Structure formats: structure tokens, C-alpha cells
């Protein structure tokens, strides 16, 4: 197994790409700390379902509530990894939100919320994970979920796309800062992946349009991204750091 004996954190692991990533990491042998937000915010069954899916593939797991926008959450996730599994080897910064909204009347609070969760959440959870990995002195792997939106715009995503470019840039910079510690830092850039984040936005017309633009002919599924995270987290990618992997079925390159 690619990740036998490894311990991983996945933020936003209750649904979508994060849940699929937690399951695939476990399928390849990792023990996983699953972070969820909704329970901290009033309750959700999604985290329990994700936990059950990880257990069903034979993985050890622990579910930890917390808002990644709070810098203390990263520290609590690391504490959980160490308390339950004794160490930390892999950090997946995945949690993110995209409440579609027009630019000209963007509420300040909404803008700040998206930046807090997507960019600050990635920054502070990555920092907490890196501190633990440096302390252990045996290297590690950090994978952030950026987006094709780091490279292209979205008229209803003016608050969101800069955070995804920021996450991409963060991985490049921490790859330099952490390389001497043997910690590899990369990002995946998913294209259009059907999850709760875009379920309402992906109207039949838009699905048709994407279907035509994507050379592989289909919208992505969370597991398409999750398998690439496993690759970047594993020894197979042992000489890969500061890189970004588009996981978009070819959508980005298909201009005409
Ligand atoms: N779907 C797509 O097409 C693409 C998605 N992405 C990125 O992938 C990542 C995952 O999105 P996706 O799976 O699609 O979306 P989902 O809406 O399905 O999942 C989002 C996850 O993030 C969690 N989350 C939201 N806010 C917070 C918070 N403040 N603190 C901790 N966790 C939080 C949610 O937890 P809870 O259930 O507890 O609310 C949930 O587990 C995001 O970063 C997104 O930007 C990138 C490119 C394309
Ligand atoms: C939420 C969007 O549908 C999705 O998020 C991204 O990052 C992609 O670029 C899509 O726009």
C-alpha cells in the first residue's frame, strides 16, 4: 500500500472532494483525521457518514469539528493526529466555499468570509501541520486543493478565484520554505467536479457547455481529484514539490 503507516489530516472532509480524499488516503493505508465544519456550526450528519466510509475501507479515523478560518483549528487537528495516531505525515488543505455572487454589489462580509475560509484556512492549517512535521524531523507531504480557477476567472467568483490563486502561490512558497525539512508541498487544480459547492450553479445548460469543452467528455467526480492527492502525498511523487496538477479532463487547454 502506498501510504501504509502514514497519518493524514484532511480539512473539509465531511463532503465532496475532502470526503473522497479521506477515503482514498485510507484505502492506501493512511490513518486520517477528518475535519468538518457544520457540526461546529450546528450539526450535520455528513461528517459521520464520511467517518463511516473511511472505516468501511479499513482505515483508522477520528472526526474533529472546527472552522478552518480560526487559526486555532489547525493546531487542534494536529493535536488530534498526535493524540490518536502518534504523528503527522500528510496534510490536505481542502476546505473551501464558493457562494456565487456578482462583483458590483459584493458584500464586504461575504468577501472576507471567502478569503478567511479559503486562503487563511489553508495558510494556518498548513502552518500548524508543517510545525509538527518539522518537529518530527522526518519530512512530510502537504497537498492543497487549489482550482482551475487559479488560472482563469469567473464573473460570479471574484471573491473566490483570488483565493484559489493564493492557495496555489502558497504551496509554491512553502515548498521553498519547507524543502530543507524534506516536506513536499503541491496543489491540485480541479476543474468542474460535481459536489454540493456547485450543485445549484451547474444548470443543465452549463453542464452541456462544460461537457462540450471537456475533451474527456464528462464532469469530474470527487474521486478523480482524490486519487491525484494520494499520488502527490505518496512516495511516487518523492521528487515533486512546488508543482500544481490540473485535474480537469482537459478543460483548461481546450480553447478552440
Ligand atoms: N467542486 C469543484 O468543481 C471544485 C472544487 N474545488 C475546491 O475543492 C474544495 C472542496 O470543495 P467541494 O468538495 O467541491 O465542496 P463541498 O461543498 O462538497 O465540500 C466543502 C467542504 O468544506 C468544508 N468546509 C466549508 N467551510 C469550512 C470551514 N469554515 N471550516 C472547515 N471546513 C469547512 C465543508 O464542511 P461541512 O460539511 O462541515 O460544511 C465540506 O466538507 C474547495 O476548496 C473548493 O474550492 C476546486 C475546484 C473545483
Ligand atoms: C464552485 C465552482 O463550480 C467550481 O469551483 C472551482 O474552483 C471551479 O473552477 C468551478 O468554478
From TrEMBL:
Keywords: NADP, Oxidoreductase, Rhamnose metabolism
Molecular functions (GO terms): oxidoreductase activity, acting on the CH-OH group of donors, NAD or NADP as acceptor; quinone binding
Pathway where this protein functions: Carbohydrate degradation; L-rhamnose degradation
Enzyme nomenclature, EC number: 1.1.1.378
Keyword DNA-binding attributed: no
Keyword Magnesium: no
InterPro entries attached to this UniProt entry: NAD(P)-bd_dom_sf (IPR036291), SDR_fam (IPR002347)
Catalysed reactions listed for this entry: L-rhamnofuranose + NADP(+) = L-rhamnono-1,4-lactone + NADPH + H(+); L-rhamnofuranose + NAD(+) = L-rhamnono-1,4-lactone + NADH + H(+)
Domain of life of the organism encoding this protein: Bacteria
GO biological process: fatty acid biosynthetic process; rhamnose catabolic process
Family: Belongs to the short-chain dehydrogenases/reductases (SDR) family.
NCBIfam families, sorted: PRK07231.1 (NF005559)
Protein's recorded name: L-rhamnose 1-dehydrogenase (NAD(P)(+))
